[in-house]
Amino acid sequence: MSEQQLISLISQMTIEEKISQLLQLAGPFFEGSESQGEITGPMAAMGVSDDSVRNSGSVLGLTGAKEVIQVQEAHLKNNRLGIPLLFMADIVHGYKTIFPVPLAIGCSWDMDMAENTAAIAAKEASVAGVHVTFAPMVDLVRDPRWGRVMESTGEDPFLNSEFARAFVRGFQGTDLTDDHSRVAACVKHFAAYGAAEGGRDYNTVDMSERQMREYYLPAYRAALDEGCEMVMTAFNTVDGIPASGNRRLMRDLLRDEWGFDGVLISDWGAVKEMIPHGIAVNEAEAAYKAIQAGVDIEMMTLCYENHLKAWIENGQVNESLIDEAVLRILTLKHKLGLFDNPYRGASIELEEKLILSEAHRQAARDAAAKSSVLLKNDNVLPLKEEQKVALIGPFSQSGDILGPWSWLGSKEEAVQLYTGMVDLVGSTHIKTAQGCAIETMTEAQLAEALVTAQDADVIVLALGEHSDMSGEAGCRGDITLPKVQLELITALKSLNKPMVAVLFNGRPLDLHGVYDQVDALLEAWYPGTEGGAAIADLLYGRQNPTARLTMSFPYALGQVPVYYNHFNTGRPQGAPDAQIRYVSQYLDMPNEPLLPFGFGLSYTTFEYSEATLSSSTITMEQPLTIKVLVTNTGDRSGEELVQLYVRDLSGEVVRPVKELKAFSRILLEPGESQEVTFTLAEEQLRYHHSNLEFNSDSGDFIAFIGGNSRDVAELKFTLTK
Ligand code: GLC
Question: Is the pTM of this model over 0.85?
Answer without folding.
Answer: yes
